[in-house]
Structure formats: structure tokens, C-alpha cells
Amino acid sequence: MNDILLITISGEDQSGLTANIAGILAAHDVNVLDIGQAVIHDTLSLGVLVEVPSQAHRSRVVEAIEICVADCGLRVRCSDVSATSYEHWVDAQGRARYIITLLARKITADQLARVTGVVARHQLNIDSIQRLSGRIPLGELPALSKACVEFSVRGALADSDAFRKELLEVTSALDVDLAFQQDTMYRRNRRLVVFDMDSTLIEAEVIDELAKEAGVGEQVSAITERAMRGELDFSESFRARVALLRGLDQAALDKVAKKLKISEGAEHLISTLAKLGYKTAILSGGFTYFARHLQEKLGIDYVFANDLDIENGLVTGKVTGEIVDGARKALLLRQLADEQGIDLEQVIAVGDGANDLPMLSVAGLGVAFRAKPLVKQHAEQSISTLGLDAILYLLGIGDRHLNDF
Fold first, then answer.
1. Fold identical between 3-90 and 95-182?
2. What is the pairing mode between strands 192-195 and 279-287?
3. Parallel, antiparallel, or unpaired: how do β-strands 314-320 and 302-311 relate?
4. What is the pLDDT of residues 376-385, one digit of tens each?
5. Of 3, 13, 177, 196, which one is the catalytic site residue?
6. Structure pTM?
7. Three-class SS of residue 34?
8. 141: which DSSP letter?
9. 356 an active-site residue?
10. What single-letter DSSP state applies at residue 137?
């Protein structure tokens, strides 16, 4: 019977080592069952699981590897693996696999301890851990720093609700976001991203800004806040707020548009998505005038929003056409996916308010961005610590990948 051998090598990384080890294994007609390699701060960790044919001598393979590794000043360990243990390992490949993404301004040992503790309590195994963010310098953190670690875990999750609840408790206790998703083929095969506009792509509610210009800021803001918390029907509250804008000079729209601040990471995210061939859309309960302004600035493909009625240079207090509320956002998302010929699992939806929940639930990946408590509670994923470009990490796209652009 063939021998199964686990070879682990560690020490200072150096060019040609893997090639030399592979050459030795090839000379003895060894079959490679699994292989993994990582380098952290110029320190190599290489593992190779091999099957040594019965006609080859295990001792000769081990001796050749030990000589090669010793010449390089590295450490090696060769361990026998039983056939039973190997079969158990093979059987495990059928288990569900999940991705946990930790997002923060910096990564601490406490964060790692809490997350891995949750994983252990639910009897999941960590297959791999990798850093997706760039290297962080010593000393004071740069402005708007980003840190991300991705865990690939495997196993039978007996109670997913309890697991998510524990992860949520970690995010509440620490200054982090934790995304948890099943590792399927769709994760790296999304094709369309739809965004809410107000308080998502921009750091303001446009209708509140217009209300300030009209002198009814406090009245409108109070209604807006209640609507975003889900306390009021969106369409009803929207009409009530727009009515308060009656008589506002059209010139105020341009004034407000020029002052709008784009959310952290939005420009980076959308430009990267465009380079990767994604389509993007704004599905907004706000106004088309501002959505078009943002479309031109960011390079958005599609815009759907509300048309503010204007006569003789003044706002009439009405909107024309069908209001883009939560139900319509979900409908528009489905229509765009159908036009693109893609599955809903390939769609990402991003929003912050209660009227975004329908489209977040329809999309394959729904992300609540700096959202209201009600939205965080019901959305599958939530980002509050970092900017919009943290969505790239949820897709498994690391900072090093972006160096190709």
C-alpha cells in the first residue's frame, strides 16, 4: 500500500525552494494530493501532502528533502498520515464552505480572538486566513486606513441564526464589521451593482438640503428621519416633504448639487467595478436632477429616480411619474438583471434606509451601508466602519489585485 506523507517546511523565504522540492518529489514519482504555501514578512510556510508509491522508498524521499532543506537553512517535518485520516479529510470536502470578512481601520488580536472563538464554538474549521488589505505602516494610522482579513471556514452549521447573532455581538463590542456569506460560485461572479443615492453614494439627504434652502429644514428632516427608520410609508412621507418645497427657486437645485459630498470609497469602488466589467445603477427615492449629476461625475450606467416638477423656474411641490419607493426599487433591480441576462444572485444592492430593504433582500448580495438600525437588523451584510469600496473585499478582491489597473 502506498504511503501518505505530510511535508511541512518553514523558514526564511528564498527563490527556487518550491521548485527544488517539486523536483525531488518528481524524481521519486510522488503524487501530490494537496499543496499550500504562504509567505508572511519574508517567512515561508509550505505544506505538501503526497502519496509515495509502494515501489519508492519513503525513507529516500524524506532523506532527499531533509538534505535540500538543511542546505537552505530551513526546517522540515515529515509526518505519516493514515489512510483512515486521509479518507476523513476527503469526505470533508463535501461540507458547506463559508467566508467571514473582518473589516476595520486596523486589525487587533482581540478582534481575531473573538471571531475565531465564535467559529470554534460552532464547530467550524478554518481552512485558510488571508489579508486582503494592503500592508499597514507602523506608527500613526493614515487617514481613512483600511484593514481586512478573510476567513474561509468549513463545516455543518447547526444554527446559522445563533452564529450570525454572535458575530453581530462582536461587531457591537468592537469597532469592526463582519460579513458572513456562503462561498458559492456567484461570489466572484457578480455583474451588476445597484445603489441608493442619498446617504449611500452621497453623505446627505438631498431633500433635506433643498428644504434648508426653502426655509423648512426642520419640518422636512423630521419626516425624513421617521421614513428612513421605517416609521412612515415612504411614498406618503415623500409627497408630504416635496409639498413643503413649493415655491423654491430652481437655482437652488444647482447650488445644492455643487455642495454634495460623495461618500468615502464611492469613486474608487465604481471606477474599479467599471474596469472589471460590472454595470452600475442608481435606484433612488431622491431626485433625478441630482442622480444625473452623480451619474456624470462617477460614471454610473443607469439612473432611476423621481422627477421634481418645476414650472416657471419654481418648484411646484409635486413630482411627475411613478414614485421610486421600496417596491419599485426591487422591481427595477429585477428588470435590470433581466435586461443584462444575469441571475439575481449576480446582483449587489447597497442602501441605508428602510425603503432599500426590498431590493437588498432580492439581490444576491444585499449590503446595508452606514444604515439605520432597522436596516442593519434585516440586511444580510452591513458596512459601517469603512467606506463603500470595502464591498470589493466582500467579493474577495484584495488591494494587491488592484495594482494591475
1. yes
2. parallel
3. antiparallel
4. 888 999 999 9
5. 196
6. 0.88
7. strand
8. P
9. no
10. P
